[in-house]
Structures are given as structure tokens and as C-alpha cells.
Amino acid sequence: xKKYILLVVVSIVMTSxxxxxxxxxxxxxxxxxxxxLLTPLQYSILREAGTERPFTxxxxxxxxxxxxxxxxxxxxxxxxxxxxxxxxxWPSFDRAIKGNVEMDVDYKIGYARTELKCNTCGGHLGHAxxxxxxxxxxxxxxxxxxxxxxxxxx
Length: 154
What we know:
three-stranded antiparallel β-sheet, alpha+beta
């Protein structure tokens, strides 16, 4: 039975890796090109699925009106009116701009989580959880602030 469960888990992980590697994004660069374009923290998060320390992003407490875009390719990802203070230490939103954020599954910490990626460049943004505001979508998109840039409304 243990061998069967291990075989199923390995199959799921390999399928996820194969699917993630086969997707072609509109914006595609080599690792060297991304490293020139991004800060070391942005590269770690967006290209290597890293995580910034909680409460370190200035965007966590930013409540100005505007749009949050991908720090790598500038695709609009989140509107300021969908941002809320989750208390987690990362910028949180109850929804993304339709079609601009891809949901994937990652098993990096041993169990399935919903990973959020930029649908234009494939950059890792954060994860989705179902503990967001009940009066709206009930979702919490927990996003690394370094994966975002903010464009204020004029």
C-alpha cells in the first residue's frame, strides 16, 4: 500500500512539473536576462518561487488607489479596491484582475497549495487561501510585495 501511495504522489508531482515546464508565456526571458532586470529579492520570488519575510514590504500597508502590476512584466494583476489587511504581513487581495493571474498547484512544502502566477510571464506571486473576507469572495491572495509594483491612480 505504501508503494502504491508513493507511486501516486510521484506521478502527481511529475505531471505538475511537466505541465508547468510546457506552458509558453507571452513574456519569456533567460535566467540571465531576468537577473539583469530584477533585484535579487524579486528574482528569488518571481523566478524561484521564494518568499519575502512578512511585514517587510512597503506595499503591505499601501491603501492608495491604483493598480498592482507584476514587477517583472508590468501586467496589471490586482486593483486596489480588492486589497485588504489580512494581518499576515503580506499584501492580500480577495480577487485578481480576470485572466491575468494563473492558478497552479505546488507541493514544495509537502502538501498541495494553490500557487498564484503572473499569466503573462509565469512569475511566482504567492498563494491563494479560502480564509478571506466572507462578505466578498472568501478568498485571500497572499502576495509577495516584491513581486508587485504599484501604479497610483491619476
